[in-house]
Amino acid sequence: MHIEDLAVSLQAVSHQFGDFAALTEVDCALQPGQLLALLGHNGAGKSTLLKVILGLIDPSHGQVTVLGQRLSAHNRKPMNIGYLPENISFYDKLTGHELLSYFAALKGVGQVRVNRLIEEFGLQYAQHKPLKGYSKGMKQRLGIAQAILAEPQLLLLDEPTVGLDPQASEFLYQKIQSLTQLGCAVMVSTHELNLIEPQLDVAMVMGQGRNLATGPMDSLVKQSQLPVTIRFDDMIRRVTRYNHLAAFYHNGALRCPVAETESLVEYLTTQCHIFDFEIEKPGLSALYQELMAPMQQNDEQGIVFQPVNQTVLVGA
Amino acid sequence: MNSQTLRVAPNPVWIIANKELKDSLRNRWVSVITFIFMLLSFSVTFAGSAISAELALPNLPSLITSLSTMTVFIIPLAAILLSYDAYIGEEEAGTMLLLLSYPLTKQQIFIGKLVAHSGIMLAAISLAFGCSAVAMLLWSEASSAAVISAFFQFIVSSSLLAVTFILISYLVSLHVSEKAKAVGTLLSLWFLLVLVYDLLLLALLVADLGSSSQALVNVLMALNPTDIYRAINLLAVDSPMGSLSLLADTAWGIELLYGLSIAWVACLAMLASQSFARKSI
Predict the structure, then answer these.
(1) How would residue A69 be classed by pLDDT, with cut points 50, 70 and 90?
(2) B243 compared with A201, residue with greater pLDDT
(3) Selected residues 103-122 of chain B with any CB under 8 Å from a CB in chain A
(4) What is the mean pLDDT of the segment spanning A137-163?
(5) What is the pTM of this model?
(6) Chain A closest CA to B245's CA: distance in Å?
(7) B3 in a domain, yes or no?
(8) Can you spell out the DSSP letters for chain B?
(9) Which residue on chain A is closest to B10 by alpha carbon?
């Protein structure tokens, strides 16, 4: 796919705040209709990266292309991007309807769309009440409605589920899913790995301003050193019967590297005639922990982390 | 995605100004400020009537001098309280970052806020002191032309003073890290410019330092917008009273004083606008 066809393309993007390297050689590519989960500890550079994509920060080095346009803070062009910053509290004195109308006017969006979104996000009953009376969940819903006012081609959400109850988070991800189905590229910075895992197309893990890994879950799992777990009934008895399985037996389950999963499954079915097994691939949380482990060790020793070559460019 | 609903935004400056106005109305700032100004205006205008138990309005120069002596304290304070959180408030709430992600320039945001805040102060000043002008037109012996001219000067100079302090508030709001610090810094500045500086200048004036020090006094006066305001209103009615009359001895005409006042507004507007343009959110 050409860079012009991508929703976001970052090539070797770096940015310094004085002596502090906020971003170092970050690469990323996001296709229309994809959901990218931007993961990393606090201070990893996620919010800075979103600001670079919005054109609010001109990176020190590298090339940023958003919706086919080369971007710089000095040459900002109006683009159809929706954004919801982290921990936004809006204007307490305005009503929900007034707030959406204000942002709609700034984007040149009509009242019909405002009313439709208020209805879609279930805020009709509170639309004429001041925002100071809104719960966190209601404000976040309003925030998302604000971000999609102009039916954006790219949606950037900075920790949108912080402080939300499970129901509100689920509602939000349903909305995100429907947007990606319509072709909107979505980038979500989040710490809630379990919530985003079923939805994401691409995960991007950042640490100390560096891109530690980017790619679809399957690719990242394949590259990781994490074992795949295989379970079946009456395991110990069957494992002892087939010597080859003992090599993989550990702590009540068979564990093997991702690369050997296929041959082990073939052995199970053809040699052992075991068909009732369950394969557990490592999840996003395990993957994240593995990627972050060397960083945490280095943090304790005061060493700046140098990432291994794990980056997978998607669609580039 | 379908982007047919996207239209060119009408005028971002007016949209922002309208929102700021709505916000201030909800905050009841507009009504509180107008009420205080009106109370002040009527108290000064009808104070004599209360004492003599019959309708006795002061003469025009006395009224304008008395009003300006009071408003020099109140107008800067009202302007500060109206606009101290114009930038730091939005930054703390996260809305400034959101606004900047919109197809807007920082200049449009700046002008929108300035138009709204200046408009609110202008409306409050005009309404409150306009009522005194009407009272003077109806019941005083002064000629209509003199009353209209004096109050017009008073309202224009008061509005310039208000805009000056709105811009000072913007500058502080753009440079502090939290709202409380903005209030603290601005109240200190108010205390310094309106009370301390003024008292020192008046002390210097009454100390009879000789004509050679008049140039120094002029420079010192030009360095404080509140003293320029005092001098404009003393010169405008041409009948200064007491120690304040020394302020009107500037040998600078009223036009030059207005020029200085406008220069303050222009310089502060440029500084605040540049600070906002350079500020990274």
Answers:
(1) confident
(2) A201
(3) 103-104
(4) 90
(5) 0.84
(6) 46
(7) no
(8) ---TT----S-HHHHHHHHHHHHHHHTTHHHHHHHHHHHHHHHHHHHHHHHHTS--PPPHHHHHHHHHHHHHHHHHHHHHHHHTTTTHHHHHHTHHHHHHTSS--HHHHHHHHHHHHHHHHHHHHHHHHHHHHHHHHHH-SS-HHHHHHHHHHHHHHHHHHHHHHHHHHHHHHHH-SSHHHHHHHHHHHHIIIIIIHHHHHHHHHHT---GGGHHHHHHHHHT-HHHHHHHHHHHHHT---GGGGGGGTTS--HHHHHHHHHHHHHHHHHHHHHHHHH---
(9) A108
User: What average pLDDT score do residues A196-210 get?
Assistant: 89
Tell me the residues of chain A between 63 and 82 that have a Cβ less than 8 Å away from chain B.
78-81
Domain limits at B131? 12-278
What's residue B241's pLDDT? Answer: 53
Q: Is A238 on the interface with B (CB under 8 A)?
A: no
Residue range A191-202: mean pLDDT, rounded: 86
Taking residues A288-315, what's their average pLDDT? 58
Confidence at residue A313, expressed as pLDDT on a 0 to 100 scale: 40
Are B26 and A151 a contacting pair at CB < 8 A? no
Give the number of domains in chain B.
1
Nearest CA in chain B to A110: B5
Q: Between B6, B22, B101, which is nearest A54 by CB?
A: B101
- Smallest Cβ–Cβ distance between B102 and the set A90, A106, A110 belongs to A106
Task: Answer whether residue B2 is part of any domain.
Answer: no
Contact B101/A81, CB-based, under 8 Å?
A: yes
Confidence of residue A311 (pLDDT cuts 50, 70, 90): very low
Look over chain A and give the mean of its residue pLDDT values, rounded to a whole number: 84
Contacts of B102 in chain A (CB under 8 A): 103, 106-107
In a domain, B99, yes or no: yes
For residue B26, is it within any domain? yes
The chain B residue lying nearest A181, using CA atoms, is: B1
- ipTM of the modeled complex: 0.83
State residue B1's pLDDT score.
Answer: 47
Give the residues of chain B that fall short of pLDDT 70. 1-9, 48-56, 208-213, 238-251
